[in-house]
Amino acid sequence: xxxxxxxxxxxxxxxxxxxxxxxxxxxxxxxxxxxxxxxxxxxxxxxxxxxxxxxxxxxxxxxxxxxxxxxx
Length: 72
Prior knowledge:
- The protein has about 70 residues and is mainly α.
- It contains two helices and no strands.
- The chain is about 80% helix and about 0% strand.
């Protein structure tokens, strides 16, 4: 159950990353000018999301390793 929980956590972080990425890619070029966000703010947001993704990927890796050890 722990592996599944950790995988679901990773999936949620990946979904958040996709959301941020879609936010940064406007559907219509002219709409992009309506965003009033500084690049440094977006970089900070992506750094936080990326760090969380790395943390959750490591948690999944650790849970998988624990499951493997338990099975052997």
